[in-house]
């Protein structure tokens, strides 16, 4: 399961870094909950996608801290992913990119992994 989640993380954030909005949208559950310590909570998939288009595409890239991902299975649901990553915003080239923790809850539905909850801590 660890390798599956690492692969899903890679697919999602490759799409994030290259503005592949469709891949990101397809990987988010319709019941997504996004918790961001600096920005609050969002429970609207369409709002999250729109915010990504507006604030991330062409501006922000995410780098995973190699070897930081931990994966814990959740019986008859999916898995919890915990790791560290950092972001670079080309609109703020002098800003320090500090590793921060993230937690993602993945649900496996019909052989497809979907993000149902994301906690992003900076």
Describe the structure.
With 122 residues, this protein is α+β, with helices and mostly antiparallel strands. The protein has one domain: Nuclear Transport Factor 2, Chain: A (Roll). Helices cover 28% and strands 43% of the residues. The chain contains 3 helices and 7 strands. The chain has helices at residues 2-17, 21-27, 45-55; strands at residues 28-36, 40-42, 60-64, 70-74, 78-89, 100-109, 112-120. Strands 1, 2, 3, 4, 5, 6 and 7 form a 7-stranded mixed β-sheet that branches. Strand 4 (70-74) and strand 5 form a beta hairpin. Helix 1 (2-17) packs antiparallel against helix 2. The longest helix is centred in the N-terminal third of the chain and has 16 residues, at 2-17. The radius of gyration is 14 Å and the shape is globular. The mean pLDDT is 96.
What integer value in Å does the Rg equal?
14 Å
**CATH structural architecture:** Roll
Most strands sheet: 7 strands, mixed
| Secondary structure tally: strands | 7
Overall tally of structural domains: 1
CATH topology: Nuclear Transport Factor 2, Chain: A
- CATH C-level class is Alpha Beta
Number of helices: 3
Quick one: overall form? globular
């Amino acid at each position: 399961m660890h390798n599956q989640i690492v692969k899903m993380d890679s697919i999602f954030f490759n799409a994030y870094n290259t503005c592949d909005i469709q891949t990101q949208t397809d990987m988010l559950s319709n019941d997504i909950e996004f918790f961001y310590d600096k920005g609050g909570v969002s429970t609207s998939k369409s709002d999250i996608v729109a915010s990504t288009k507006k604030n991330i595409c062409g501006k922000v890239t995410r780098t995973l801290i190699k070897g930081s991902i931990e994966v814990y299975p959740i019986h008859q649901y999916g898995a919890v992913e915990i790791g560290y990553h950092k972001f670079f915003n080309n609109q703020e080239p002098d800003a320090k990119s500090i590793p921060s923790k993230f937690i993602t809850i993945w649900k496996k539905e019909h052989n497809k992994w979907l993000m149902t909850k994301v906690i992003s801590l900076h």
